[in-house]
Amino acid sequence: MSSSTLLDELIEALRCLPGVGAKTAQRMAHHLLERNRDGGRRLATKLGDAMQRIGNCQRCRNFSESEVCALCRNASREAQQLCVVEMPADQAAIEQATGYRGHYFVLLGRLSPLDGLGPKELGLDLLSARLAEGEVTELIIATNPTVEGEATAHYLAQVARQHGVRPSRLAHGVPLGGELEYIDRGTLAHAFGSRLDV
Amino acid sequence: MSSSTLLDELIEALRCLPGVGAKTAQRMAHHLLERNRDGGRRLATKLGDAMQRIGNCQRCRNFSESEVCALCRNASREAQQLCVVEMPADQAAIEQATGYRGHYFVLLGRLSPLDGLGPKELGLDLLSARLAEGEVTELIIATNPTVEGEATAHYLAQVARQHGVRPSRLAHGVPLGGELEYIDRGTLAHAFGSRLDV
């Protein structure tokens, strides 16, 4: 038995975090109680706030606490480029790694009929309406290079062409700093086939 | 830039958890928002509650939301045995691993004069008063086998003897399932020196 029911409940609640098991949850709870109660209190407030108030942007479907997110409202971003990603984490990765200054569209999934994810669930009607506005000239397709991601990319390229928008796709090949010897066959074959003149 | 200020604040707040960096914090925030808002809300409530209400038991100094913790109040535990540990996590480990049915006393540290941790900070006046009550007959010393833990154990043994209480200490030696070849020299030498008749 434990000395505190509330502590047991906190440890149980912490296990909803990904990758956190019983032992880690206990370590986290003890750490906060022993050394960082202010941090714990701040986390409790922010967490409650975020779960309550964060929804999805009506324009790009990314996380947002307002109807239209800060990025969509930002007039200094280029309106001609629209980058389509599967998940909010992909958007964050591109935003952090590249100097891209255009807008995003988040599918919140990938085409997967068996899971009941069709064009409607991915908000492709919203995307079509956006392309029909006529401002976007390039649709940058940044879905994952998986089977479902490729199928989604293929579909998105068709949608773009229907609206007279140029579709483009992230380059696939050997990662920087990778060694040919250790790269998987599929990637190597693709990189070899898509070699560029220098 | 990000699509949501509140999301950025949540990610920052999550970093107060031990072992959670920027990347993990982002993954946790996205996971909760995408898949487990109920879990996130429950965590927010429990966390706020725990930070506010959990203090230390007045009898054993372990975490407790009441003045005296559930374990100290439990009349079915044996009052003759008192096990002294450094931290609440040590108490939890002993409680989970062993069939111990006595009571605990938590030092919330170890003797370390350089860090300003003396007998007073470890609540040894409280421990002395407890031993003076006369119910305890065995003081099980379960401090860590570090230099400071050993010094603390030595001191605790003296306190116990002053009150006519028998001090005992966890056995040190080769861990079960360990291989002699890979055990550190200190442990092996100790185990060899403390060999028992069979």
UniProtKB/TrEMBL annotation, chains A, B:
<dbReference type="Pfam" id="PF21176">
    <property type="entry name" value="RecR_HhH"/>
</dbReference>
<keyword id="KW-0479">Metal-binding</keyword>
<feature type="domain" description="Toprim">
    <location>
        <begin position="80"/>
        <end position="175"/>
    </location>
</feature>
<dbReference type="Pfam" id="PF21175">
    <property type="entry name" value="RecR_C"/>
</dbReference>
<dbReference type="InterPro" id="IPR015967">
    <property type="entry name" value="Rcmb_RecR_Znf"/>
</dbReference>
<dbReference type="Pfam" id="PF02132">
    <property type="entry name" value="RecR_ZnF"/>
</dbReference>
<keyword id="KW-0862">Zinc</keyword>
<dbReference type="GO" id="GO:0008270">
    <property type="term" value="F:zinc ion binding"/>
</dbReference>
<comment type="function">
    <text>May play a role in DNA repair. It seems to be involved in an RecBC-independent recombinational process of DNA repair. It may act with RecF and RecO.</text>
</comment>
<keyword id="KW-0234">DNA repair</keyword>
<dbReference type="InterPro" id="IPR006171">
    <property type="entry name" value="TOPRIM_dom"/>
</dbReference>
<dbReference type="Pfam" id="PF13662">
    <property type="entry name" value="Toprim_4"/>
</dbReference>
<dbReference type="GO" id="GO:0006281">
    <property type="term" value="P:DNA repair"/>
</dbReference>
<dbReference type="InterPro" id="IPR023627">
    <property type="entry name" value="Rcmb_RecR"/>
</dbReference>
<dbReference type="InterPro" id="IPR000093">
    <property type="entry name" value="DNA_Rcmb_RecR"/>
</dbReference>
<keyword id="KW-0233">DNA recombination</keyword>
<keyword id="KW-0227">DNA damage</keyword>
<comment type="similarity">
    <text>Belongs to the RecR family.</text>
</comment>
<protein>
    <recommendedName>
        <fullName>Recombination protein RecR</fullName>
    </recommendedName>
</protein>
<feature type="zinc finger region" description="C4-type">
    <location>
        <begin position="57"/>
        <end position="72"/>
    </location>
</feature>
<dbReference type="GO" id="GO:0006310">
    <property type="term" value="P:DNA recombination"/>
</dbReference>
<keyword id="KW-0863">Zinc-finger</keyword>
<dbReference type="InterPro" id="IPR034137">
    <property type="entry name" value="TOPRIM_RecR"/>
</dbReference>
<dbReference type="GO" id="GO:0003677">
    <property type="term" value="F:DNA binding"/>
</dbReference>
